[in-house]
């Protein structure tokens, strides 16, 4: 395999259930993402894009096929090893923001650092909040922030560990159009700074942020477009 | 995640649900406090029973008359009139009973004592000079009964200090028992015993006077108290007394004997066995409440895991390992029970301080029940915390994230 391939998925199949109830959410799926690339994965619900996101994010392992992430075969790792990969190499951005309501903005951003016993957590967290333009909101609780600001806090949390990959799952799904533009601008900027970004979405307005778009249907890739 | 941060995270989440945490802690608190208090009360009553029995002297042997069986009705030990003054003189024979130091017959009953300034109901025992030795008592003032008092059926009485105080009498005063005047010749020194079986509230009169004037019964006596020459000769004194009584009662088969001899050690061990059983019973009930408290902890931890499913999912996505989450939830359960346990110890000591002053019930708190109650509480918390913590650790991150 080539070293500049951050993600290399080969003939991955993911089956849920057993026997007659077995459903293949991904079928013989292959995908390569190089370092520094930005990719949008589009498809209607049920197309398998959530399953793809879980496997890309090391939240789940494939039933068959191989997944090389940053030169490491992660398709056979156990739960603890996957947790370490997620912590060190992947930053997640979720549709529901997933901020802890009782923690201030910077405490939320600090969270992934706690699971790697990092030093200087506060200054790292403040730097990440600066990058998303929230340097003046560090002590605000999530409920004191707008939806767009909350999602930017979540992006800062994804960013704070300096990950190889930022994986965004419907990042604008819960936002109005102004906030969406805001958040997408932040993601585009991060990519321009050289960070690899994969966005999973069903929203055609989001896809143009990425330089490449793949369309999925029934667990397979149906179309690939380079912007 | 470092242990410090795990504890901090656990505390933060417990403080986030203050009322719930306090109520859960209360369950453990009461369990621990109940164990400490009940074992303390049991220990104290065991101590006081032991003290009361040993104060009577460990050299003491008590001979009781065998039970009477009339028309098939078992009358209980001491109901037959098989012990007489003849037995007493037989036991006093130094030749055949070298290991018996003192022999005191006892016939007793409850009677009302009337003095010039008041009246008081107490236990009146008829006995002889040796009563002082067998009961290991001393006088504070006056003299005790003499051999001559028994011969002459003298109307003299020796009072316990409590009795004398309550009647307002001293040596030389007159006391009426069943309308018969008795002269107070002596007051016993106090033993400090209290409550049921108070050794300071009693009266002693000559055995002959008691038999003829107070309780009747001819020359039979209810019990004979024996004092061995030393604690080491109790065994031989026991054998000698048995031999003499079998002989004077003309009984060849010892299993048919019409009397029974108990040593103070037997009484002591019986009493200790009884109080120990009671203590264990009480402590078991308290331990069950501790168990219930532990189930409360488990219940609340399960609720907490269910409630925080999406938080668990998020933490997993951010890199928390199953071990991290397991530790976090076990620590939360451990903190709940440790806090409850420590407050329970404080409450137990508070009960130990208040109850003796408020209800005149002694409480003796020893380190063992305190340590074991706290140990059990923490063990209960950890054991009952493990299952919820495992559930948290095993949650699949995707499903946990989806729960919203």
Name the overall outline of chain B: elongated
Mean pLDDT of chain A, to the nearest integer, reads: 90
Distance between the termini of chain B: 25 Å
CATH superfamily of chain A: P-loop containing nucleotide triphosphate hydrolases
Radius of gyration of chain B: 33 Å
The CATH first-level class of chain A comes to Alpha Beta
Unreliable parts of chain A: none
SS summary, helix count of chain B: 13
Written as H for each helix and E for each strand, in order along the chain, the element string of chain B is HHEEEHEEHEHEHEEEHEHEHHHHH
Using the alpha-carbon principal axes, give the shape of chain A.
globular
Span from first to last CA of chain A?
Answer: 25 Å
Account of the 3D structure:
The complex is a heterodimer of chains A (227) and B (404). Chain A contains six helices and ten strands. Chain A is α/β, with parallel strands linked by helices. Chain A has a single domain, classed as 3-Layer(aba) Sandwich (Rossmann fold). In chain A, β1 and β2 form a beta hairpin. Chain A starts with a strand and ends with a strand. In chain B, strands 4-5-10-7-9-8 form a six-stranded mixed β-barrel, surrounded by four helices. A two-stranded antiparallel ribbon of chain B has the order 2-3. Helix content of chain B is 55%, strand content 18%. By secondary structure, chain B is of the alpha+beta class. Chain B has 13 helices and twelve strands. The two termini of chain B are 25 Å apart. The chains are: A alpha/beta (227), B alpha+beta (404).
Task: Provide keyphrases for this structure.
heterodimer, A: 227 residues, alpha/beta, Rossmann fold, 6-stranded mixed β-sheet, 4-stranded antiparallel β-sheet, 29% strand, globular, B: 404 residues, alpha+beta, 6-stranded mixed beta barrel, two-stranded antiparallel ribbon, 13 helices, 18% strand, elongated
